[in-house]
Amino acid sequence: MKRKLLAVALCLSVTAAAFTACSDANSEESETSQAAETAVETEADETTADTEETVETFVVEDDAFSYPLTIEDAYGNEVTVEEEPETVVSVSPAITEIIFALGGEDKLIGRSDYCDYPDAVFDIQSVGPIDLPDTELIVSLDPDVVLASSIFSEEAYNALTDAGITVVIVKDETSLDGMIYTVETVADVIGLHEEGDMLAMGLSDEIAEIYAQALDTIADDDITVYYCMSYGEYGDYTAGPDTFINDIITYAGCVNAASDADGWSYSTEQLLAADPYIILVPDWGYDAFLETEPYTELTAVQEGRVLAVDANIFERVGPRNVEAVRTVFEYALDANAVAHAGA
Prior knowledge:
This protein is an alpha/beta fold. The chain has three domains: 1-62 and 194-217, no CATH class; 74-170, Rossmann fold (3-Layer(aba) Sandwich), CATH 3.40.50.1980; 219-339, Rossmann fold (3-Layer(aba) Sandwich), CATH 3.40.50. It is built from 13 helices and eleven strands. The termini are far apart. Mean pLDDT is 85; it is low at 1-62.
């Protein structure tokens, strides 16, 4: 049913301390960089000895695609989309972004209150919050399929399926490879299979290109990066090792300063001890972070290495995650250049 990618350019099991390719790779860094630059999506029978050493390979299934399409959703249900949908409701900002990136916005007849990108989304009927939307409104729109995230409530799911509407709960992914898979899944569900393949390949190539540049420029310096999801009275939350934000940091050639985190929770004491070289703070909390104790004690705050970022490109799983990778890489590259100036 689905055509899986070969790895973007290397394993997603890269640890915070070692920027290597797959676990069995033993080549020099220059060989790894070259592999990252030249890695492409190929059919299974076209893999070479070089790519086998540096690229994690997956089975590539038959790329034939047709309806009816049956997939397993985030609830573990097998859901069948009988034919290509002409009308779609997306109750997830991330999924809505993917649909627009695929060029499928003409199919969208409903979106959640929180869908805010791109601007054209505001021309589409809002159906309410992402967990418990107005199911009566959705039923009145009579969409061919409703796409939602795992936060979608059982109450809303049952109301829609009882009304005979096909609902696909898209699985939450925890890696950039998973982001690529989500793009393909959404594309297949809404009838844009070829567009999904092209978008997935393009995103993979961009990530590989950035990572190759990072290997050649900053990766040896072990630049630690901390992503501040919240702080202070809201609690210290960040992206631990098993998150797609961790992948964003890693593919930018840096080390996640919170690689010791358990899930998303962190402590102020851990943060002060880690004293990351670079700190990323969402726009909404940037100014206050710089003035709030004890964060003022952090070296990055004192030396001006705190970057305000758009939380949506970091915290929503979608095509703009590539922009997040590039943002971290370019900021780290500039910080690295300043640190080594005159050396």
